[in-house]
Amino acid sequence: MEKKWWHKKCAYQIYPKSFLDTNGDGIGDLKGIINKLDYLKGLGVDFIWLSPVYPSPMKDNGYDISDYYGIDPAFGTMEEMDRLIAEAKKRDMGIIMDLVVNHSSDQHKWFREAVKNPEGKYGKYYYIMDGKDQNPPNNWRSYFGGSVWEKLPGYENKFYLHLFAKEQPDLNWENEELREEIYKMVNWWLEKGLAGFRIDAIINIKKDLTWQSFEADGPDGLCGIQNMLKNAKGVGVFLRELRDRCFRPHDAFTVGEVFDITEDQLEEFAGDNGYFSSMFAFGHCMTGHEGSYWHEYRPVDFKEWRARIFQDQVRTAGLVYESNIIENHDEPRGASNFIPEEDYGFPSVSALAAISILQHGLPFLYQGQEIGMTNCRFESIEEYDDISTKDCYQAAILAGLTKEEALESCYRYSRDNARTPMQWNSSKNAGFTAGTPWLKVNPNYRSINVAAQEKEYGSILNYYKRLLAFRKSEEYGDLFAYGSFQSAYEDTENILAFFREDDTKKILVLCNYSSKESSVVLKEEYNNIIFVNYPKVTQIGNTQKLLPYQLIVAEYEK
Ligand code: GLC
Ligand code: CA
What we know:
Blueprint: E1 11-14, H1 30-35, H2 37-43, E2 47-50, H3 78-90, E3 94-99, H4 109-116, E4 128-130, E5 149-151, E6 158-161, H5 176-191, E7 196-199, H6 225-231, H7 235-250, E8 253-256, H8 266-270, E9 278-279, H9 302-316, E10 323-324, H10 334-337, H11 346-357, E11 362-366, H12 387-398, H13 403-413, H14 450-455, H15 460-471, H16 477-482, E12 484-488, E13 495-501, E14 506-512, E15 518-521, E16 528-532, E17 539-540, E18 543-546, E19 551-555
Parallel strand pairs: 1-2, 1-11, 2-3, 3-7, 7-8, 8-9, 10-11
Antiparallel strand pairs: 4-6, 5-6, 12-13, 13-14, 14-19, 15-18, 16-19, 17-18
Bound molecules: alpha-D-glucopyranose and calcium ion.
Alpha-D-glucopyranose (GLC) is lined by residues 60, 63, 100, 164, 200-201, 257, 329-330.
């Protein structure tokens, strides 16, 4: 694998709406992000990915963009955006924006023009089709529930395509004029000095142009989008063009939100000559995801989770530099998803952190992860904001679950778990806002917050700082970036372990990922311990004793 300028960095995702509000309107803003740049620098962050801050009617919290060249007034101004980019640069940090170009908002001027004149220039920017006797052209189900087709306002038998919400009409990438608009916009941002983009839902830009219906897979008579994605060939033509026209000339860092590709496509997507610099390693996040709705999911099973992590590391070895996450704005909190609730605490959260960050790939943190923020209980479905939570709740009720059971599945998987305001301190609203927060603050902010953890040497926050410094250190930085990955001790119960090795160094990351004490009979004697999450490490003969969630990093003679 070719060495790239961004390989030894660490990234952090900000969900701007929930990060820090500086004007008391209850919504996080760009000024709030600027205020916290030193905090992020101190944590060890090099790249900051901002979830969308473009003007948006916020039907999907900014993933419905009505103007690609602006900043939503709720977040601030373009001057503030420029200042953020400049202030980040001063600190040797890069800003990455979200590139949401599978769809626009239905309030984008292109779509409004399309509604006025579906046969005209802008009608061709979208997918507008005639229905079958006023029924939708086919039976595809949108990601947020219901048909992907919505009647074009004012027409009896014309429908437009939306794979996500009906307020997110899909852009027609087959149309060269539309593609040119997008490239112009991407270059405009890159010329402003962005370090790159996180690329949203990108696999969806190629449609199955036969528009065939598929066998229904639910009582609604519809079928999941995955069917059409399997039949949509040729997304690479668009992605290559996007790369060559925009990303390459700027040497931008790009990370794709890529689902639904096969193993043999990994290199094509994110290899040395891939469409993107990197892509998220989502495999392990899918542990327990059975069926299409949350109430069908199973809690994370350790063995399955570990197998998925290893599988991903092995299949990308030497080919792809993935981006590793345990959570994001669409996922539950990692500390709630990958740790049984009764085990939550410093040992478990710190173990999970090291497992993620010491793997091969680019470490990506999500806001609040560094203090161990958790899922949040909402009292009723009305308290939730997220569009997909409403859909999954409804599906659970339709499947015969009680309200309590349906809410329980939202507590486990709702996207709002990660979107509750950042917990800065123990004052009102966790120091997030002086006004009324747009979404409930997790009541555990009184004990889980940045200010408290900054004061405590042994806090999760300070541990994360040491962990990122270790990962990026002069001494071990190359090993973690480029060293090989080899799973270890898979047959010992509850153990998650792997070797990282290069020409000059060899280390073992060894963790007892359980609440019970454990021990491992070491096959090979290590030289010394270089990183820990417990003060004391006990070895008797060649048996390594491990306390609950104890993690050690041991170095071997080489
Ligand atoms: C991506 C985003 C998600 C959004 C969707 C539609 O999956 O991460 O938040 O709802 O795309 O843009
Ligand atoms: Ca604000």
